[in-house]
Amino acid sequence: MRFRRLLLADGEPMSVDENFIPAHRVPGLLDGEPPTSLYNVLSEQFGLVMEWGEDMIEATAASPSTARLLNVEVGAPLLKIQRHAFVARAMVDYSVSYYRADRYKLWVPLQRPGARRARNH
Fold first, then answer.
1. Residue 117 — very low, low, confident or very high, per pLDDT cuts 50/70/90?
2. Rounded to an integer, what is the distance from CA 60 to the centroid of its chain?
3. Rounded to an integer, what distance in angstroms lies between the CA atom of residue 67 and that of residue 77?
4. Given this model, what pLDDT does residue 118 score?
5. Rounded CA gap, 80 and 27, in Å?
6. Alpha-carbon span 23 to 20, nearest angstrom
7. How far is CA 55 from the centre of its chain?
8. DSSP 40-93
9. How far are the Cα atoms of 26, 52, 55, 94, 115 from residue 18, in angstroms, in the given order?
10. pLDDT single digits (tens) 66-89
């Protein structure tokens, strides 16, 4: 099953998300309103609690269709995030998301194994 969502914050476009989920795992998912929190719906309605996953993040340029949805110029910088999410060994969600680079920051805490605990901010 494939579906595409435009995510807003305060009425402004923030990201375009496209998800691919095995249809046999989520019968009737698209019969109602689009989910506001996909992973909550997968967990609560279908018992699919994501156990692990991986994201690949890279810079990209807005295509004409994505630029129109995000209200940016064609070629504007975007963050592209590809996700593989798993329940046990089964991949239950593959997604590609395009985030407006002008509205996001990526924060990655780092710590050496065995080092003193990181400070809270």
1. low
2. 16
3. 10
4. 59
5. 28
6. 9
7. 9
8. HHHHHHH-----EEEEEEEEEE--HHHHHHHT--TT-EEEEEEEEEEETTEEEE
9. 16, 19, 14, 8, 39
10. 999 999 999 999 999 999 999 989
pLDDT of residue 105: 85
Q: In 3D, which of 13, 39, 17 has the Cα closest to residue 26? A: 39
Q: Tell me the three state secondary structure of residue 9.
A: strand
Distances from the Cα of 107 to the Cαs of 52, 59, 65, 83, in angstroms?
20, 15, 28, 17
Tokens found for residue 15: 């990201």
Domains of the chain: 2-103 (3.40.1410.10)
92's tokens: 């239950």
Give the global pTM: 0.82
Distance, CA of 57 to CA of 79 (rounded, Å):
7
pLDDT at 44: 92
